[in-house]
Amino acid sequence: MTSPSHANQAYWDSDAANYHAEHPDYLSSFYWCPEMLHEDQAHLLGDVSASSVLEIGCGSAPCTEWLQSRAHFATGFDISRGMLNHAAPGLPLTQADALSLPYATGSFDAAFSAFGAFPFLANLDLALGEVSRVLKPSGRFVLSANHPMRWIFPDDPTDLTAGISYFNRAYVEQDRDGNLTYAEFHRTIADWFKALQGEGPYLIEDIIEPEWPRELTTTWGQWSPQRGEIFPGTIIFVCRNSR
């Protein structure tokens, strides 16, 4: 059976052009989430002027591109060659799987993921362990992802009726032969805490739930002003490597 990694690699390869056509503003700079929280405003990575920084699941790497003139060194990786092909020329990017990082132990001062990789990984613990391995001791790790509360609502961004179990941890699509073509994985708040800090290699320093800006009228996939007015769509964990 096709693994989630191979299924999602093929999915994002095929959807890369469409994804970029649908989200030009979001992909124009370093935004953490559909609420358009910018790193220049949030400073979640802190001062990176002397830091080596790794972006996890970088897609076409607008965040890594933004960091080029601000960090001592910034690089990123993504499993999808199709997404990487949309990156700006000359960026130091790698095609890789988050479950097996091609970097030496202790290579980076900071690592981050802005809606990249983690929602599509069945083995969250392995991926978080790999990030911890390539981070220096006490290195910063920042992760933004779908807020667990968003999972209980359908894809229609105008539908405010919760109808999906919060405790259903996966959504998959298959072709007629039963081969996996897409996989997305849900974590509850408790799941995230256990994976990051409870049984994981990090200390959580902050949790951020960005509010939907009143001036933002854009619908972004399942994120919309109607939903953003009443519940969070994004969760951001700011952590330190405890290994």
TrEMBL record:
Pfam families: Methyltransf_11
Family matches, as PANTHER family: METHYLTRANSFERASE (PTHR42912), N6-ADENOSINE-METHYLTRANSFERASE TMT1A (PTHR42912:SF93)
Gene Ontology annotations of biological process type: methylation
EC number(s) stated in the UniProt entry for this protein: 2.1.1.-
InterPro entries, alphabetized: Methyltransf_11, Methyltransf_Superfamily, SAM-dependent_MTases_sf
Organism phylogeny: Bacteria, Bacillati, Actinomycetota, Actinomycetes, Mycobacteriales
Enzyme class: transferase
Gene source species: Corynebacterium marquesiae
Molecular-function annotations in GO: methyltransferase activity
Domain Methyltransferase type: 54-143
Protein name per its UniProtKB record: Class I SAM-dependent methyltransferase
Keywords: Methyltransferase, Transferase
